[in-house]
Amino acid sequence: MDMATKKRAANVRNLIGDQTIALVGLMGAGKSAIGRKLALALDLPFIDADTEIEAAAKMPVAEIFEAYGEPEFRRLEASVIKRVLESGPQVLATGGGAFINEATRDIIHQNGVSLWLSAEIDLLMTRVSKKATRPLLKNPNPRAIMLDLIDKRYPIYAKANIEVLSEDLTKDEMACIVIKALDDHLSAQSNQNGKSSRHA
Ligand SMILES: Nc1ncnc2c1ncn2[C@@H]1O[C@H](COP(=O)(O)OP(=O)(O)OP(=O)(O)O)[C@@H](O)[C@H]1O
Ligand SMILES: O=C(O)C1=C[C@@H](O)[C@@H](O)[C@H](O)C1
Ligand SMILES: [Mg+2]
Q1: Phi, psi of 139 (to 5 degrees)
Q2: What residues does 112 pair with on adjacent strands?
Q3: Residue 193: pLDDT band by 50, 70, 90 thresholds?
Q4: Is position 34 within any domain?
Q5: Which of 26, 28, 105, 192 has the smallest set of CB atoms within 10 Å of its CB?
Q6: Does the beta carbon of 35 sit less than 6 angstroms from any atom of ligand 2?
């Protein structure tokens, strides 16, 4: 990490207080991979919602879908994320569908800041093709599924506090871009709060 990013990381760590930085976005956007790097750079715990769900259910995500169906997975996901959000500061990689739930979105915004890792279809498909474990993509035409999810979900992910375009860069480069975006957002928010309290 260069000096400027280190400085920005320290500033983010300072401004985040005990809140959660929640990464949202589609499968393959890099929420887990970049989230882990980000947590390391900020010296914060890293929590992956999918891993927490697997621990709670004592089975992999794909098996939860198979055994109990998607609605039950969504209920479990919402309750696990609600619990995780009680223990900031931390970096949380949400599962791809979590932020689509309005109650989950609200609770994320009550307890922290959301950052959408957006990405183009080709990049997502390259990334997800490496692992065949994602239940929603177990389909003869995973690209069509992903395009449909882009249509349905991008307007909702856009409600996140921050958007960072996930590009074909290294994980470290992406983590630096995310740190800069967080620093800009949190600094602007803190200046705004300072101004409004001076006017009060
Ligand atoms: N910037 C990057 N450079 C290279 N590989 C990356 C990058 N970001 C992510 N990857 C790789 O792409 C794959 C998908 O990334 P990751 O698992 O982090 O996505 P995700 O957003 O957590 O998806 P899901 O919602 O399915 O959990 C992983 O193999 C990861 O290592
Ligand atoms: O986009 C989604 O709906 C999902 C993404 C993954 O993170 C997992 O939470 C699960 O495979 C569902
Ligand atoms: Mg993930």
Answers
A1: -155, 150
A2: 20
A3: confident
A4: yes
A5: 192
A6: no
Query: Which amino acid belongs to residue 99?
Result: F
CB atoms within 10 A of CB 154: 13
- CATH code, domain carrying 24: 3.40.50.300
Provide the domain limits for residue 129. Answer: 3-173
Q: For the chain, how many structural domains are there in total?
A: 1
**DSSP character string of 59-80:** S-HHHHHHHH-HHHHHHHHHHH
Domain presence at residue 198: no
| Three-state DSSP state, 194 | helix
Please write the tens of the pLDDT for every residue from 94-135. 999 999 999 999 999 999 999 999 999 999 999 999 888 899
Residue 198 annotated as lining a ligand binding site? no
> Is 0.90 exceeded by the ipTM?
yes
Interatomic CA distance for residues 133 and 185, integer angstroms = 34
* 191 occurs within a structural domain: no
